[in-house]
């Protein structure tokens, strides 16, 4: 005779019978619950106005039915309690009479306590059944981390592949317990695809290795495959996957990073085939950005890019392995964990979008104010690690973070400089560019790179000692082109002259128009550079909007002498003129500047 556990006193016999009938259900393999069982649970809950709880084994059998608060239910001894890196093999599905499915603190506590495969709450609201669930995602200092997902529709919940999910969780627990004594290091293997006309694959993988190390992973090795087109299911060929699987065991790797962006399906398939976390270049770069964003806006932009990247990777098959546990790909800006719930991601996306809009409006206001007193602006651009921050420091004697890491600079830093001839200018350092820049980041980049788009002059810093300096320059121009900034006045700065021994290379490089060779580190060539900048500024003309009061109208004649007058308009409060003029005249006319016309 099956037993109903919990608070059953006072429950009618007919309902007890119906509760007992629940034991007859069996859930198909891999499925979390059936819709029929869900329906029955909800119906009983409404009649009883109490929680109804079922415990389901991995075989799909109902091992226990209970009524009342989950935590007060005395669980029958769960068979063969297993070691710390194993879940109990039982999932707990219960109902909330209120219809709200959000897991309570008690629900989450018993999830951890009992090490359930999954803890779910069902509820019916306005006639619609929904579900939320919690899972253990890892273990840290002997304590379980959990994640809550939902509310989902019943259909979405039923789609969850529970077998796959529990296998992933146990793998994660395995990893956590094996490495918990030491600080958990991600040990990565890198995989690339060699295609025609692309960068040499080895160089691309070397750069990927540097990115991985910047993100805190240890690189154990790299491998690649020659292929014209990626495989639609696995990105690489089946044989190659097997080879990587062996290599992974041999090297004891716990992470595979692909050099290109994987589709969500490819990522999922590879994780299933290889059994460990699989990431792509995009996730890696996003992770580095997340760790390095400093300004409020930078953080928001990066989080937005990460959420947009993650959203399609949380399909009906549940969470992919790379979303579990921790480490690269799960960290948000400021060490917060990234949201894994689709609905909450969508809410967060619209919330961030609103905040960014607001910041943009404010920035435009600031820029208009700054334009009232215009000073020529110069932006440093260049491939990541070229030496931009070092140069900015040299030029301004300030201490902008310069490190031998990719993307040390994320937010634009602007400094005031005075050139030898007394001319003032604003110098902005920017984030480095990189090949295969994730498209999700172009938007985030746009914000930091608006300074580039607005600049009067660009200084393109090239690491002339880098074997791939030409490809790197090319990647920079590609981004400038996307920003519509490739027609701006540009000085090419060949940096790290101290590392170049061959004088022929130096003279070859200097054939480039408007170029200079420097060592930002040691200061060689800085004087020449400044003179070049001065000359550039002299040739520049700067657009200004002026409002000249009628009693100063004598100025107008002078304006025609020294500047290019585009338009004049007589208004109540004065004469409104748009001019372009040489920067050394700026100071005099700044007093009349009104910035750009308000829209
Ligand atoms: P950014 O990413 O372009 O801002 O590059 P950083 O300014 O952070 O510099 C990257 C690395 O290159 C740092 O380790 C610098 O010390 C180094 N570096 C920069 N300029 C020079 C140089 O002229 N010579 C040498 N040898 N190293 C340099
Ligand atoms: Mg920098």
Notes on the protein architecture:
By secondary structure, the chain is of the alpha/beta class. Helices cover 38% and strands 23% of the residues. It has helices at 13-21, 35-48, 105-114, 154-159, 162-179, 201-214, 238-251, 264-274, 281-292, 296-310, 342-372, 388-396, 439-454, 469-482, 503-509, 526-539, 555-562, 586-589; strands spanning 4-6, 52-57, 62-67, 90-95, 119-125, 128-140, 143-153, 187-194, 218-226, 255-258, 277-280, 377-382, 413-418, 424-429, 457-463, 489-495, 515-517, 542-548, 564-571, 574-581. The chain has a 7-stranded mixed sheet, with helices on both faces. A 6-stranded mixed sheet has the order 13-14-12-15-16-17, sandwiched between helices. Bound molecules: guanosine-5'-diphosphate and magnesium ion. Guanosine-5'-diphosphate binds at residues 382, 384-390, 402-404, 408-409, 432, 495-496, 498-499, 519-521.
């Amino acid at each position: 005779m099956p037993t109903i556990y919990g608070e059953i006193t006072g429950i009618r016999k007919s309902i007890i019978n119906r509760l007992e009938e629940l034991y007859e259900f069996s859930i198909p393999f891999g499925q979390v619950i059936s819709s029929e069982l869900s329906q029955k649970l909800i119906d009983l809950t409404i009649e009883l106005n109490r929680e109804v709880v079922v415990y389901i084994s991995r075989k799909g059998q109902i091992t226990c039915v209970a009524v009342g608060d989950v935590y007060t239910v005395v669980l029958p001894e769960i068979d063969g309690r297993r070691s710390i890196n194993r879940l109990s093999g039982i999932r707990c599905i219960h109902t909330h009479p209120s219809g709200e499915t959000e897991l309570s603190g008690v629900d989450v506590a018993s999830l951890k306590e009992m090490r359930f495969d999954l803890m779910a709450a069902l509820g019916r609201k306005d006639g619609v059944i929904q579900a939320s669930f919690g899972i253990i995602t890892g273990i840290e200092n002997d304590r379980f981390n959990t994640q809550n997902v939902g509310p989902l529709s019943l259909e979405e919940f039923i789609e969850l592949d529970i077998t796959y999910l529990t296998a992933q969780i146990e793998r994660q627990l395995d990893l956590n317990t094996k490495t918990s004594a030491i600080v958990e290091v991600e040990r990565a293997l890198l995989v690339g695809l060699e295609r025609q006309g692309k960068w040499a694959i080895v160089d691309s993988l070397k750069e990927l290795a540097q990115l991985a190390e910047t993100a805190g992973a240890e690189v154990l090795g790299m491998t690649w495959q020659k292929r014209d087109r990626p495989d639609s299911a696995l990105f690489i060929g089946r044989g190659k996957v097997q080879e990587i699987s062996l290599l992974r065991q041999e090297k004891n790797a716990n992470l595979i990073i692909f050099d290109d962006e994987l589709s969500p399906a490819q990522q999922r398939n590879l994780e299933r085939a290889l059994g460990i976390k699989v990431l792509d270049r995009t996730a890696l770069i996003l992770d580095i950005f997340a760790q390095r964003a400093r300004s409020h806006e930078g953080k928001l932009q990066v989080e937005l890019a990460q959420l947009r990247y993650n959203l399609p990777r949380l399909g009906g098959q549940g969470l992919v392995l790379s979303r579990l546990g921790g480490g690269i790909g799960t960290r948000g800006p400021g060490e917060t964990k990234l949201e894994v719930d689709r609905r909450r991601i969508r809410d967060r996306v619209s919330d961030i979008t609103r905040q960014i809009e607001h910041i943009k409006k404010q920035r435009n206001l600031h820029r208009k104010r700054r334009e009232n007193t215009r000073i020529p602006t110069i932006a440093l651009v260049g491939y990541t690690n070229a030496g931009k921050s070092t140069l900015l420091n040299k030029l301004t004697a300030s201490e902008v973070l310069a490190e031998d890491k990719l993307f040390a600079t994320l937010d634009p830093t602007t400094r005031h400089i005075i050139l030898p001839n007394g001319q003032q200018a604003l110098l902005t350092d920017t984030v480095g560019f990189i090949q295969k820049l994730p498209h999700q980041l172009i938007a985030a980049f746009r914000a930091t790179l608006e300074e580039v788009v607005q600049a009067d002059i660009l200084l393109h810093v090239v690491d002339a000692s880098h074997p791939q300096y030409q490809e790197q320059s090319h990647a920079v121009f590609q981004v400038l082109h996307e920003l519509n900034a490739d027609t701006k006045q540009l000085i090419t700065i060949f940096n790290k002259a101290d590392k170049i021994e061959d004088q022929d290379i130096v003279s070859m490089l200097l054939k480039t128009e408007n170029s200079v060779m420097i060592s930002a580190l040691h200061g060689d060539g800085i004087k020449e550079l400044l003179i070049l900048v001065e000359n550039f500024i002299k040739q520049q003309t700067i657009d200004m909007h002026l409002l000249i009061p009628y009693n100063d109208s004598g100025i107008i004649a002078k304006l025609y002498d020294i500047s290019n007058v585009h338009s004049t308009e007589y208004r109540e409060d004065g004469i409104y003129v748009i001019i372009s003029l040489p920067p050394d005249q700026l100071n005099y006319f700044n007093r009349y500047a009104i910035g750009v016309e308000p829209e």
